[in-house]
């Protein structure tokens, strides 16, 4: 059995968790976790302000780690390793978490495991679903990332698709901004879309039908802007039509990727936008048509959290990996 302390601070969530890699249920695997969102601090600016984010991480992280260990009824000495996000992300925030992880590892004489935040998202479904075996096809859709990966094993990822402009979550956030729904926009767009007619506003489906499974959302966002400026549509209809167009793109792209990858055990969706119920429903249909189960971690594991970082640490610890204490924080770090 291994107990891992996970630390996450790469964007606007400060998070810490204790993971027990031998737990047989999700509740047993996540011994304790805490997340502090900075949404309120960034809301006036309509997006994450890196300097504000880094300062808030500094204030919150240290006490939070003490609280999470207390919640778990454990001490730092009980941990087998410390796993901290080392990138990609906003560099100030990444440094806060990584330096904290290094200091704890040094003080308690524990191995440090530097985690790629994207690997955290990619492996989080295995935290939620102990039976999920490699290889699986992963649709990773968040505010900063929009990729389809063939996850063949720990550290063995083949990227089949990426976005040529905006990420899916970014498209939701920009649509929310255009409609005056505030930040973060994804959940607000989804709520408003429920009251609208998805066929009311004709919108483009960029790249649908192309043979490579890449994504593009910039043209869709511009069309949403024009529809709003025209002043002839209800906001709910714009939200519903946008969501439908975006999901049509995602489903088409994922279908192409399913045809291009090797045999897989499941279709998996992760990242913040995986919290979207309409997306889950459409993916469920696609997966069952392909004879695959759809694995979608609970929404709390889809948005940024430290349990997924601790879990990636647990998988790496089991393989005997650890990192030197001078490992660098990386603003960019492709999987
Ligand atoms: O994974 P995440 O918490 O942070 C990143 O690493 O980006 O994802 C946040 C993104 C935001 O763009 C947010 O608007 C989007 O996920 N999101 C949603 C929903 N919940 C969160 N988008 C659409 N529908 C939702 N229900
Ligand atoms: Zn993320």
| The top level CATH class name of the largest domain | Alpha Beta
Number of separate helices: 12
Straight-line distance between termini = 27 Å
Helix content: 40-55%
Roughly how many Å is the radius of gyration?
20 Å
- Series of secondary-structure elements, N-terminal to C-terminal: EEHEHHEHEHEEEHHHHEHEHH
The total of beta strands comes to 10
Per DSSP, what share of the residues sits in E-state strands of 2 or more residues?
15-25%
Largest sheet: 5 strands, mixed
* Name of the CATH homologous superfamily of the largest domain: ATPase, nucleotide binding domain
CATH architecture of the largest domain: 2-Layer Sandwich
- Class by alpha and beta content: alpha/beta
In the predicted model, the low-confidence regions spanning at least 5 consecutive residues are: none
Oligomer: single chain
Binding site for substrate: 140-144, 173, 186, 190, 276
GO cellular component, one term: cytoplasm
Keywords: Acyltransferase, Cytoplasm, Iron, Metal-binding, Transferase, tRNA processing
Organism: Novosphingobium olei
What does this structure look like?
- α3 packs parallel to α4 and α6 runs parallel beside α8.
- The protein has 335 residues and is an alpha/beta fold.
- The protein is built from twelve helices and ten strands.
- It has two domains: 139 residues, Nucleotidyltransferase, domain 5 (2-Layer Sandwich); 163 residues, ATPase, nucleotide binding domain (Nucleotidyltransferase, domain 5, 2-Layer Sandwich), CATH 3.30.420.
- The protein has a five-stranded mixed sheet, sandwiched between helices. It has a five-stranded mixed sheet with strand order 8-7-6-9-10, sandwiched between helices.
- β1 and β2 form a beta hairpin.
- Bound molecules: 5'-O-[(R)-(carboxyoxy)(hydroxy)phosphoryl]adenosine and zinc ion (ZN).
- The site of zinc ion has 4 residues, from α5.
